Amino acid sequence: MSVELNTTFHASVDKGRERLNRSLPGLLATGAVGGIDVSIGLLALFTVEHATGSALLGALAFGIGFIALTLAGSELFTENFLVPVNAVVAGHATVRQLVRLWAGTLAANLCFGWIMGGLIVAAAPDLRSTALAKGTHIAQHAIGGSLLAAAILGGTVITLMTWMERGTPSVPAKLVAAMSAAFILGSGVVVHAVVNTLEMFAALHVGAPFGYLRVAEILGFVTFGNALGGLGFVTVLRLVQVGSGTVREERNQAPEAERRAA
Q: What is the pTM of this model?
């Protein structure tokens, strides 16, 4: 195993332990600003796509939200498919803490994303038609193999971004990883539990022809697919790549109380 891979794994464990040990207010606040940051990216996407008619230019503009995520220390629910999981596997935290992090971050992402979606369409009436079209397109996806494949790819992309960001101290390199992932997520080729739910929320604010039950159905299915991609295609394979010896080394360094809990 390379030194770089070893270093990245240990750094991810340290960061994961930090995330999992946050107080509940700190956890919710971090998720809230994550929802706000992504919504700023959606504002940029709606603005550019409305002005140009180009979904790809809109996807490039969406990267503004992921720059904010990277530089401002906020988080999306799906970013926690790697770093905290590594901390749990290494014996530094518990599964209960992981579930608490996932649930709290997702709830805060969605709550504040819903608020921001309402503010966007209220502040910029010209963008309402674009927001309606984007959200309705997602809601009309049939639940099935195509949506599952897109969700698996979405989870893989965001978790790979997280791994790349943990692997370098360079801020420009982190931003390249963030912009690359944002472009793919914003292009409409893949689907993401938080990003696309916020698009549907914005559409609902302007009278979309679907309801919150449909949002919940899409969210649950896409979350499952994102988890399959993020955990199965990135996290598990990276742990295998790192090797059981390195994982045991981390577990041996964990405090006794953490090892018993894990």
A: 0.92
